[in-house]
Amino acid sequence: MHLFSDIRAAVIAALDQMVSEGALPEGLDYANVAVEPPRDPLHGDMATNAAMVLAKPAKSKPRDIAETLATKLAADDRIVSADVAGPGFINLRLDPKVWADVTHAVLKEGADYGRSDLGKGVKVNVEYVSANPTGPMHVGHTRGAVFGDALASLLDFAGYDVTREYYINDGGAQVDVLARSAYERYREACGLEPEIREGLYPGDYLIPVGEAIKAKYAESLLDKPEEDWLEDIREFATEQMMEMIRGDLACLGVKMDVFSSEKSLYGTGQIEAALKRLEDLGLIYEGVLDPPKGKLPEDWEEREQTLFRSTDYGDDVDRPVKKSDGSWTYFAPDIAYHWTKIDRGYDLLIDVFGADHGGYVKRMKAAVAALSNRRVTLDIKLIQLVKLFKNGEPFKMSKRAGTFVTLRDVVEQAGADVTRFHMLTRKNDAPLDFDFDKVLEQSKDNPVFYVQYAHARVCSVLRKAAEAGWDMSDARLAEVDLSGEWHPSELELVKKIAEWPRLLEIAARANEPHRVAFYLYDLASDLHSLWNRGNDEPALRFLQDGNEAASAAKIALARASAVVISAGLGILGVTPAEEMR
């Protein structure tokens, strides 16, 4: 059941009737006709902007359209009143039976309540994390991993065909640095003093890698020149790092469908094929770029390069794909990688990047638009920085990592569920503070606790009902009589439940899973408010002493709340709490 969608359908049907009667012209576009919660709840249960958005194309006054439309809507059995307000908005009040239907629908549909076919099976590739395989994941990767994973789950819930993908950046110079760093730990494993010179990775995490190299090669590599061992150690160390990264992701509850390798693009003709595609479109040329604005870098020189005409697709400047020495730029394999995604048949690509990649957005979107002839859309979500605090002080770097706080540091301190939820309490492009003390405190100010506590409270009610020998199964609650009068606090809660399908579609369209976290906090707040009112008004308590029928009517609403909370937490990758200790 999607109440807002159902009432919008009634609005569209009424508009169609007005067209057939000649009150509106034919051919009107209803795309911007919305039914949504009113800004002021005192104005009603829902509001529609239909008359406002259709007035201009219909060449009519908004209020004239609104008056006729309101009369037709008022004839709907679900609508008690339809009142025209202001310049032409229509405020709707619904029959109390509608709220009973919403509650019953949640209990019947269970975790599928709110699931939709919005995506219509559109194939989506969500690429996230994609950390360099040179060490353990840090806290910045943590936020990107949580965001990407929650977004993938959200899109899946909304009916998209989703693939989770990790792009292994194993084709650049950083993996040579990894190999040299691992070799020094290998020398250490052989009893020699490692030379962790400037530019190498100093973290202790490479000590086990050095020991693994010794286990495989014994001391046979000690006296060999770098060219003899670099390639083997690079491959071996990269795989060791990827095993570590997979373990990091697993402890956060993240599992990828696909791991793609940058290295696999080199020497296979895939980079050349992607650029040939652009060349055939007349988008590759030899040219000289204008100097960058502002102060020139010391190493900048005016030189001819192979350029992609990205300005034809909205970029600020054309971008080099090959250096003057004939080697590829970093951009070239990224073009080829996205070409493989297009070739695999995806309709929508979503890349989750760190905030430091903001300058990469326009060129990458231009490349995808050009390669796909604008068929495939690329949405790039930038993840802002996370600041860690403990005891009011910045959380110090990890000795094991050498230079940063690791994902495992965060999860070991706060737990996976708390980490995941809190990472979604801000929009992805807004900075986020992660205070270990605050995310673990048990108060309303801690959204993780507040939402979990709401679910746990409902579970405690169900346990007490079971102890009384009452059947409070979802099947029984889905049939319970809810025709009694609704208290304003109960109405507030059920109205929030009714918003869940609408909220999901809005969040999925915008690729914004943080909206789910915000909604869950509001829903939990409404549930806690009703619970607390019951302390002063016994008639509002979920458990009515000795009265199973009355209790069932109250518990049905509470259980419906818990079903939605559980589904929402599932999208965020958080386990619902059944009790709080």
Automatic annotation (TrEMBL):
Domain of life: Bacteria
'HIGH' region (motif): residue ranges: 131-141
Cellular location(s): Cytoplasm
UniProt similarity note: Belongs to the class-I aminoacyl-tRNA synthetase family.
Source species of the chain: Thioclava electrotropha
Protein EC: 6.1.1.19
Official protein name in the record: Arginine--tRNA ligase
Recorded catalytic activity of this chain's protein: tRNA(Arg) + L-arginine + ATP = L-arginyl-tRNA(Arg) + AMP + diphosphate
Broad class of where this protein is predominantly found: cytoplasm
Pfam families linked to this entry: Arg_tRNA_synt_N, DALR_1, tRNA-synt_1d
InterPro entries cross-referenced by the UniProt entry: aa-tRNA-synth_I_CS, Arg-tRNA-ligase, Arg-tRNA-synth_N, Arg-tRNA-synth_N_sf, ArgRS_core, DALR_anticod-bd, Rossmann-like_a/b/a_fold, tRNAsynth_Ia_anticodon-bd
Keywords: Aminoacyl-tRNA synthetase, ATP-binding, Cytoplasm, Ligase, Nucleotide-binding, Protein biosynthesis
Self-association state and partner proteins as the record states: Monomer.
Gene3D superfamilies membership: Arginyl tRNA synthetase N-terminal domain, HUPs, Isoleucyl-tRNA Synthetase, Domain 1
Domain DALR anticodon binding: start-end pairs: 451-580
Domain Arginyl tRNA synthetase N-terminal: 5-94
Root EC class: ligase
GO molecular function, one term: arginine-tRNA ligase activity
